[in-house]
Amino acid sequence: MSTDDDLDAVFKALANPLRRRICDELKLRPLTTKQLCASFPELDRCTIMLHLGALERAGLVVPVRKGRERFNYLDAMPIQAIHERWIGPLAAQAASQLHRLKNELEQETLSTPATRR
Which of 35, 43, 50, 75 has a C-alpha 20 to 30 A away from that of 90? Predict the structure, then answer.
């Protein structure tokens, strides 16, 4: 994921709650479009296909045809790129601060004389 346009497409795709639900279904295993439609009985096939198209354009879903069936696979790499750009550095910073706090507390414990009762 190299450009901000790519990231914009991912954020736009994931902004829709139905698309997030579709991704939740696909994270467990690839599903055919028919199976995916069965997971959302309140929606028609055209609606599911429109949302799958948005997820495909964002690179989050990869369709693979096997005969007459279309299997939809979740590609988590765009989400991983977002994690690496924003969440990873913040998590590393938080871990570093926790490590520093641990060291300071250990030093304080070692340098403070134990009081006897």
Answer: 75
Structural domain for 61, as ranges: 4-75
Tokens of 108: 């304080």
- Calpha distance 61→72 (Å, rounded): 6
Token pair recorded at residue 2: 């190299």
Nearest residue to 9 (alpha-carbon basis) of 57, 52, 69? 57
Give the per-residue pLDDT at 115. 61
**Domain of residue 42, CATH code:** 1.10.10.10
Distance, CA of 10 to chain centre? 10
**Which residues of the chain carry a pLDDT beneath 70?**
1-2, 89, 114-117
The encoded tokens of residue 58 equal 């964002």
Q: Is residue 115 part of a domain?
A: no
